[in-house]
Amino acid sequence: MGCAISALNIPPAGTKWGDHYRKNIQDYYTCISGVDEQFGRILQALRVAGLAKNSIVVFTSDHGDCLGIHEEVTKNNRYTFVMNQEEGKDKIIMLYDRKDDPYQMKNIAAQNPGIVRELTEEMRLWLIKISDPWVKNMP
């Protein structure tokens, strides 16, 4: 059983974004290959150290590149949001404003409870959608 594939959402050649896409797609795929290679090194190091069977490795990505699709170069996501919960420890919530703090040095979660609530809810809904058991850790 196969999947139906619709036409790609690539702007036409000869347009600003179509030409941008075609010029930069090779670099985009190079980045993907580089991430894949480095992630493979992490997995191999776990195998070599004998930790692979007792490790859960989660890799998520929102690369942020649109390459001109939707007439945007990037997704322009302003915030990095991290929620960490370890058994027996308090939940840690981190929020960074990549526009005002591009090196993500200052956690602004405590000063922005509205943004934290909004992003927590988005995360909770996504975890429910994908049936992720971590959702039980959500507030």
**Given the structure, what is the number of helices?**
2
Average pLDDT for all residues? 81
Walk across the major sheet and give the strand order. Answer: 1-2
**Main beta sheet, described?**
2 strands, antiparallel
Strand content: 5-15%
Low-confidence stretches: 1-6
DSSP summary, beta strand count: 2
Overall 3D form:
extended
Order of helices and strands: HEEH
What structural class is derived from the secondary structure elements?
mainly alpha
Range of helix content: 25-40%
Rounded radius of gyration (Å):
19 Å
Terminal-residue CA separation: 40 Å
What's a concise summary of this model?
With 139 residues, the protein is mainly alpha-helical. It is built from two helices and two strands; from the N terminus they run αββα. The N and C termini lie far apart (40 Å).
